[in-house]
Protein 1
Amino acid sequence: MMNVELYDRPGPLERRRIRLWTLVLAIPALAGVIWVVTTLREQGILDSEAWSILTDSEVIVSLLTGLLATLKVAGVTVVLSLVVGLLLALGRMSELRWLSLPTRVWVEALRGLPEILLVFLIYLGVPAVTGLNISTFWALVVGLVLYQSASMSEAFRAGFLALPKGQKEAAVALGVRGFKTLRFILLPQVIRQILPNLVSEMVRVTKASSLGFVIGYTELLLSGEQAIEYLGGQYAVPIFAGVALLYVIVCLLLSWVSRILSERLR
Amino acid sequence: MQATNSMISIKGVNKWYGSFHVLKDIDLEVAQGEVVVILGPSGSGKSTLCRTINRLEPINNGAISIDGQALPEESGPLSQLRSEVGMVFQQFNLFAHMTVLENVMFAPIQVRKQKPAAARARAIELLDRVGVGAQKDKLPSQLSGGQQQRVAIARALAMDPKVMLFDEPTSSLDPEMIKEVLDVIVELTKGGMTMVVVTHEMGFAQTAADRVVFMAEGEIVEVSTPEEFFNNCQTERAAEFLSKVL
């Protein structure tokens, strides 16, 4: 890791002061940890019996099924948002005002709306307006894509704006047509540039897919909740902890993949 | 001038940036095989003029044609024409995500539909010719400025252009690298390439130019041979410019 030297190297006096403050702050921190552990223990939440529920095969299957549903929503949402987001970014950067202005309004408006509102709007609004039923899966995906594509379009746009103008000029001067310039010269560089952003957007989508909970799409969070309802409240903490662990694992995997990708792309 | 073998013809060209008149009634003919060097103080419009020739900068009125063909308005034919006009930029503008070799092969394959093997062989030949063959698998960022600019020249030559435009090709180079790039450009002038070179290198203008065009404040002030321009210039503005740079 790169070491960002924000501060000067401490002198002897400062080092002593740092040691003192470390000690002073460590005491309440330690006390806090002890308090949490004893409280949990008194409430019987740390009992190994409750936690052993996480080794129960039915619970595992149920949570993994939920995880799969989460990944399905997240995967489809990410792919659609990337495509729509790129189109929105290109629209907003267009020199045609009838295209750039509406796109801009659309993006700004959608980025300002809570995702849960969009999900509800699709889930309840589409049947109300069209009379067609929409599955919870697609209601969730469309709701999330509405927000996420607007958000990703801004990431794309920032990437395009950060590219030196000369890259496009050099391609154009060689007689390369617009689409090929975009596809072979600009886009590869933009994607490399905004990869960290795109991964954090993917992490966001994964977490936001838990909104499936409110419309009854059985993803990871809801399957945890259903397991607790079935087994009883004393299992809430272990099961939610298991759910949390799965979310964290997915997100860590995403970061890991992005690190490998950006190293490969240099 | 010679209307019969004129390669670049610029007639009555005007351009404004907002209310700023960058190019004022520019007329210039460049004959086939001729090397024209454009000199002038910064802000005189010489770079802009160079960039209008392949329409990287659109003009407000006037007419430009290359090899008898007017610059097309439609993007398809315009791209076609640009592919026959090589351009070298001040900032090199190599494609940052491609290796040196890929930079040179890209347009021949994508625009000219050459077979990759043929494009590769030609690219290696050109890279050797400009003296950077050994760097072919590196990324542009791993090269010195002088090496990058020589790659950029090879990239333009790979399209077998009728005309080469150089827009201040040595202005962002460290002094010790200017010569290696100028040597490559001088070598090209001997091959009979039609060239327009915008530069601040007076030595280059003196030795390599067939004609010198002196611009100031968006106008062509003086056009003459290098000997005449550097020894016996006709206008006060040119004299003032030369007194500062020589």
Protein 2
Amino acid sequence: MNRIDSIRAGELRAVARALTCVENDSGSREALIDELFPLGGRALVWGVTGAPGSGKSTLVDRLITRLRGRGSRVGVIAVDPSSPFSGGAILGDRLRMQSHAEDEGVFIRSMASRGYLGGVSGATGDAVRVLDAAGFDYIIIETIGVGQTEIEVMGLSDLVLLILVPGMGDEIQALKAGVMEIGDLFVINKSDKDEARKIRAEVDYVLDMKYAENPQDKNPVAMTAAALDQGVDDLLEAIDAYTEKLRSSGRLEKRRRDRLSAEIHRILAEKIESQVRGWLRVDERTQQWVDAILDGVHPPYRFIQKQLDSFFREAKVR
Amino acid sequence: MAKTIRILVAKPGLDGHDRGAKYIARALKDAGYEVIYTGIRQSIQAIVKTAIQEDVDFIGLSLLSGAHNELFPGVVDALKKEGAEDIIVFGGGVIPEDDIPGLKTRGVEAVFTPGTPIQDVIDFIEAQRPRIESR
């Protein structure tokens, strides 16, 4: 069996190796993704995000159990931060999901962010492609604990669950800071804690204001206590209903098209950059350029523009 | 650029003492490796499935219960059965000196006992790098 057939058959090692290939950006990555692309597009992709310690992994663990109960196969990509100093990482998200370790219908992969700043890793999008082609019905991306800018999971998922918890300081700050614009569904986890109702009220307040004109579009809010396995069935029901709404309104289709257009722009930018850099021999000439600019011979923008102009002139001739 | 080495640190069997495992996980992170940590009381099957899904280069097993002669080679054998014998297994914990040669002949490539400087573990890992990169 060749690599693609093995991945398609969901063969563990082949899927794992393909994920390593995209993660390490090995030479065969582009060919791999191109071959897998037509096989995908069937999985529903959920992003799960929220502050560190909000219970993301535990909630994902409970959701896996429910999805398995329906007979669905589940792939999980759990992202943790790389150390900016050593480049190493401790990837501990799957600690809370190890009850599924022996289940053939669940594939969990931990990824380090490797310096990427969007709350995911640079390879997460392609990793989703691999799991999609391997036939997983649901793919869950668990992000690094989210701050206010780690919102890239929105661009990778069909829908995003934003996990909020009581006792994380001045709750309303988070709402003001725009974190709430990330989520499709808001999950208030640790609902057994006293302040959970207060958060719920605040979330409702913000959403009611936002959707004063069209209340039917208000995002669903769910209360869970994942560690106690409470509220998870209701959450799943809300996710299903929301997915149905996304589908019937054509928004799911639109999101996927938007995702692909962002992907096209990224690939284009990457390719242009690497080709122009190679042609201009940027790596070996940078120090020379620094000297030229520091010496006051050339101002930076005009200097770089000159280099580019000469590239484009040459490219036209060829 | 050198390949990022991935290591699963796991505790098989029933003992619940994970200080050593957590210490080694941290130290390996600080040495620049990606460490997947799965916690205590892992079955051999769970360890092997995890190692394959995570596509790790090494499995580091930590054990203080005395069952190392069964559980460490058990992991090696289960890897073989899954066609993943290229994953390198090493162990640590309270292991009597007399048991170490036996463990090595059964495929546990290195055994680190209490008091081992962390640099020894890193040296062992780095010594395997050519093997890993040629895979």
